């Protein structure tokens, strides 16, 4: 009798459940729930209270509604008996966090706190805590905190303690009223199981925790703010558990929401990007997974601990138990090409696309694919949205050079793709040079399907095979796989994520082999990229920052 | 009784005659003749012989036809009596040159030479003599030729002796058969007057002549090629005469062609850009004339001789008698914006332009004008077509930086305009720092009429008033003015170009005053421009050249 597992992937605008065959990994069916309140970035629900720019909140009740809508839907669509579903796993955006009471009640559902924006879920892209991030970094540097090196030397405004410190600064009463500060990932698992658990992925990548050293010290938090001194003992948990473990089982109430059986196994929570790694077949060092969409997230496993300057961070057990999970990122990939198509593509290319009923991207890709490597004479720095790794600098901006009066739009389009490939190569080389080997790339996410030229360019620039995950919903598949592991082999699942990956994760047959003649030419262009990367990115000429500062001055003055 | 004068401006595709009132400078009427053979760059007329790339020839009979069509036309259109036309002046593109027999007959009209491309007129933009230019420069450097400094250290492939040396190399029989090598400017004056004269403008700017030192030595020419040793004594003339002199009077045959009276005064020939200077009211140092079109030509007068590194050249009596005429250039101005509009402007901007029945430029200009200085955060290097002054390097290419995902097309458009303004400021500062003062700009050419934003940006970047010539056909007006000077005051004209300019040349009332607050911001951006100008332009990072070399390799290989 076939067994099934469900993965629920909580995204930025919606949540998605996928029902998966445990034996084969086949995705039977899926259902999506679009959050009623989506991203709350203008006005609070009910009170209509205005939010400042850079704010991004969510409503935790949207997450419960996601369970209530999507799981019954996949059961109904598939006709599968709830008794054959052995496990549930979830993954979430991160750091997406909220203040809750001791029983898990979010402060924002309580009438007395509902009008305070700090009572709500702070979404990953809530960027209003930059001053707090600056303080966190400054204080850590002054106190010589050893953990700073694990995160490439800088903590982001998106991360957990930046958001917590903002609550303390602006709305201390909310901080006092909260018994727990918790990742939404862990909070939804709590809602399913009735048990508070904390996962090592968000703790490690977003909340400065490590298996070896735990959280930063009381002294450090006290230096940030006296109220924050006991944040760990008072508002957090130090019982951090790796992915692959079972968090608990479905409560009767959660069973009622979902239509599943009470007692069904629920996995420890995970992050959307990280959970995709085993779903892309990777459970060992050497193969880097790239989740490619508007931006790209790079993940690779390592046997041992290495400080890699400028990466997002590394966490023991952060991705796959038993390994150090290394993460890096490029903040502008799909967004880059979308910007180009929206702002720089002439009417005649658009007309061709319309006549042929294809996208503008498709027309540009076809024209760009006809170009030889090096033929355009163009070179770009892919910093339209700053640089996340390895320079870790949001104030860098885009650059392109080599234009002549004969330069064509498809040449620029190709140069932008190449720039993102060079950016990836900088990251790959940073890993390699610091003891984290990489010999193959595996892609998942929206871009690889859409743009074969891009995939070939990456393979050629890197000189490595570039493979593609068979699933186009790898996070949900990964969550379902961890659900099967939570259930365990005795119940028809697996005893480890390694076993689950062998049976459930697959790659597409077709993949991209590097053309080594192209690589030889790209090596020369990449040398030029590196030269400019260092010149503009490491302080030799801070023109980009000075122009950005001038821009801010000019706008402020008016 | 009113007197009249006619200026004939020989352009690249056509010739234009303008009939002007001597007293007021009022342009009564004009007529254009489009050359039958235009630019000959694919096949020779008659024989159909194929030309190599980079070739550009013309048919001298098109010049005679220009006289035959345009002068009768302006007489007829105006109803003016030919007896009231006191003088004729001409200006020409340069260096545009041809081999002729002793009586002025072009070799290409003689059947025995007609199938040899070297017998035809080599147009200014004939670029096939680059190896010869390289040899000329190399030999000059080796022999320590003092004149090289006058031309910013480099002779162009477009210039006179590059073209002559190509004839010697490839078609020595044509060189032997030619009794004279002559600028087309001087040749058409010869056809009108029956007298061979040579003008100091083309001799100085294009043929390495100076009033003080004459031409390069016999030893130098011999070093280039034994056949060339006596080029000056055998094929040229050392009787070089400044603009403002009378070359002669109309022959009966020329009178028959034109409908003018035999004996009408004809001025010494001139170059289109240079002749525009007095027509733009400038006959004294300090005010730089900019002829702005697809590219920009900068001219300024100096009291004394100064070596200005990287400019095109300076010639005593080259523009206005009694002054050193300094010339510089930017190779990509109008072309720059045209490239952008053709290749980078999205469909919705084009749609707005169509709906409002205005040009895409007009829509972009309006949007760009709404931006504050520094607001875009963008900075470009205007080298899409190389750099003519002061780097003198055709292998430099364009660059732009500062892009974010919020960057809009009009911001890029404005940054391109600003880049050309910064390029002009580099030239202005090179003059100023080397003893050639400049305190005001005067524009003529096609661009100033079309783009007021551009004019204001130039005024702001330079911190100088930017005025505009009242005439939109300044070269023809300037030629007409020199025609009136050739006739002299006794016949109703003027005794000097200074007197003629006072009466005949005017500026528009409206002009562009610098906004000094904007200048203060532009000073900061210009500092950034200079930094990148030096970094990419002076060898610190030759990435542009290396990419261009790679591009040539890649294209060659395929």
Low-confidence stretches of chain A: none
Q: Label the structural class of chain A.
A: alpha/beta
Please state the oligomeric state of the protein chains shown. Answer: homodimer
Main CATH class of the largest domain in chain A: Alpha Beta
Shape of chain A: globular
How does this model look, in words?
- The structure is a homodimer of 558-residue chains.
- The N and C termini of chain A lie far apart (70 Å).
- In chain A, the strands form six sheets. In chain A, strands 1, 2, 3, 5, 11, 12 and 13 form a seven-stranded mixed β-sheet that branches. A six-stranded mixed β-sheet of chain A has the order 16-17-15-14-20-21, sandwiched between helices.
- In chain A, strand 16 (313-316) and strand 17 (324-330) form a beta hairpin.
- Chain A has 558 residues and is of the alpha/beta class.
- Chain A has 20 helices and 21 strands.
- The model of chain A has no long low-confidence stretch (mean pLDDT 96).
- The first copy, chain A, folds into two domains: 4-274 and 474-504, ATPase, nucleotide binding domain (Nucleotidyltransferase, domain 5), CATH 3.30.420.40; 282-468 and 515-558, Nucleotidyltransferase, domain 5 (2-Layer Sandwich), CATH 3.30.420.
- At the A-B interface, helix 11, helix 12, strand 19, helix 19 and helix 20 of A face helix 11, helix 12, strand 19, helix 19 and helix 20 of B.
